[in-house]
Amino acid sequence: MLRNIVRLQNQVGHVFSSCNLYPRLQQASCTLKYSTASSERKKFYQDVSISQSEGGLFEINLDQRKLKTPGGKLFTVPNEALAIAVATEWDAQRDTLKFYSMHLTTLCNTALDNPTQRTKDQMIAAALKFLETDTICYRVEEPPGMVELQKNEWDPVLHWIENRYNVTIGSSSSILGPEIPEATKDIFRQHLTSYNLWSLTGLEYVITQLKSVVLSLGVIDRYLSVEQAVLLSRLEEEFQIQHWGNVEWAHDYDMYELRARTAAGALFVHLSSETSTVKRKLMQD
């Protein structure tokens, strides 16, 4: 069994707190299809452990078998903290392996196999395209209630990121969205260049879930909790639900699923950037 895993929460601040308007990136869609090629499988192991290879990377062991990626590569992660988090996903599975619920494993597989064969520059360019159709930059002109809600809830976040990165983004009611200055794109491009390939994989995953660069960076920078970011990304839907009602179980399921995926992506970004090793062995019977 795995114990004390909750200590990892302290490494990512409140990102873990509680745990469709625009098209997704074509590359991200490919990644999602790749990650769910086999959604369920009967469990074939009893014990989960981690080990460190001679090269310093960490591996996941299922009984005596070493985990491999869908592409056939040895499943290795750069640090112990991420290895423990992935091992926790495998340890939590019961009689049936539900791969669609193992978001950290999926992200590691994507980073290792790189099924779309993209470079770091291509990933950054794809992420920046979302600025042009960012969820919180597109504003409606009616009804008045929704106009006011968007202003009250989205403007503070927009002002935060403009001040945080010294950029100009703005908002627009045009279907084309606001025209993003090249200087703004350059600043974000420079910022994203500081991310490693693994962290970019996690960030792109969060952006795809929230359909927003602004909200995603808000979560990564710990300005927003996962719950806040998800609610802000669904603002129009929540407004419609308040007026017209909803199918409760379906709404709750979608909400929790989006929270889980967003939290996993944010956690992956932080753990992929982790350079220190967890000194104390957390995996024990």
List the topology elements.
Elements: H1 26-35, E1 40-42, E2 48-52, E3 58-62, E4 65-66, E5 76-77, H2 80-91, E6 96-98, H3 103-113, H4 120-129, H5 144-165, H6 182-193, H7 197-210, H8 213-220, H9 226-233, H10 235-244, H11 248-272
Antiparallel strand pairs: 1-6, 2-3, 3-4, 3-5
Helix pairs in contact: 3-7, 4-6, 4-7, 7-8, 7-11, 8-9, 9-11
Subunit structure: Interacts with ATP5F1B; involved in the assembly of the F1 component of the mitochondrial ATP synthase (ATPase). Interacts with FMC1.
Pfam family, one: ATP12
Membrane topology: Peripheral membrane protein
Helix and strand element order: HEEEEEHEHHHHHHHHH
Rg of Cα set:
20 Å
How many E strands? 6
So, CATH architecture of the largest domain? Orthogonal Bundle
Distance between the termini: 5 Å
Measured by DSSP, the beta-strand proportion falls in 5-15%
Low-confidence stretches: 1-37, 276-285
Question: Overview of this structure, please?
Answer:
- The protein is α+β, with helices and mostly antiparallel strands and 285 residues long.
- The protein has helices spanning 26-35, 80-91, 103-113, 120-129, 144-165, 182-193, 197-210, 213-220, 226-233, 235-244, 248-272; strands at 40-42, 48-52, 58-62, 65-66, 76-77, 96-98.
- Residues 1-37 and 276-285 have low confidence and may be disordered.
- Helices cover 50% and strands 7% of the residues.
- β2 (48-52) and β3 (58-62) form a beta hairpin.
- The strands form two sheets. Strands 2, 3, 4 and 5 form a four-stranded antiparallel β-sheet that branches.
- The protein folds into two domains: 5-19 and 44-113, 2-Layer Sandwich (ATP12-like); 120-272, ATP12-like fold.
